Amino acid sequence: MNTSEIKKSRSFPLVCALALLLAAAPVFGQGASAQTTRKQAPNTQSIPNGAKVKFKGVVINRDADTFTIRDRNRTDYQVLLTDNTNIRTYGGFFRRGKKYAVTDILRGLIAEVEGRGNTQGQLVADNVRFNESDMRAAITTDTRVNPVEENQERLSGQMDELSTIAAEARAEVRAANERISALDDYDVQETVTVNFRLNSAVISPEAKRQLDTLAEKATTAKWYMFEVGGHTDSTGGEARNFLLSRQRAEAVIQYMAVTHKIPVRRFVSPMGYGKTDAKADNKTAAGRAQNRRVEVKMLLNRGMSQRPSTTSTTKQ
Predict the structure, then answer these.
(1) I need a labelling partner for 307 at 20 to 30 A (CA). Which of 115, 130, 138, 249 fits?
(2) Domains (ranges, CATH) in the chain?
């Protein structure tokens, strides 16, 4: 062997080691998918069942009972190790070589493999041979590559965790924005209508019982408001009806605030609609009796309560 051939044979392990180091370098954003892609062997050659094969290459991937070896033509073969596989270094004239265990086959090791194909297209190894110097180079490569890959997997896991946290944070921000945008929205939870005698703003006993029931519900509620609107029938002048309808609404607010201690801040400013919003026919006595009324609506703030809207929505 001349000097040129010796240099080439010595440089081959170094080139293989450098290639593995470059392949294992971490690339942010790829994570575990990059490692999966590297382990795939698109040019894996299937060995015919029973065919005897012997070739030399570099180990590029290692699993529990198999490893992938790539020859000089960049063709990959999957090698199956068994209890009968003889793993040794090359021996001299009077030496058989040093024996190694199955677990000593490392990535980056330049090895010669001999065996036969099985039904899965794998090469069942009878003999695996390599130089002692190549084993030392593979051990050096493995000690450098493994920490890099472990760090890459750790970073990939951290990135996945951060992505999950970011998604949860975005969801919380969206929920907060929805609550803020809904602060002025109220859902009608309860509506009570109390009626009045002609030209009167005095609350009847029956009307008081209705208001008492509504007030009891308010004692266990939060984020609520009361909207109170007074109405009249069509009899009388327009100005008189507006005044009377407001007096009726104020009488209801006063009764609930004084009798049931409901804070005045819980009431929207009373509104008198006069005869403008009739709910029944003013041409009949029964219709006019229905129109002489005060409507009390218990409203729940949508943004603060986070309760789903089940009824019509009104603005404060």
Answers:
(1) 249
(2) 3-154 (2.40.50.200), 181-315 (3.30.1330.60)
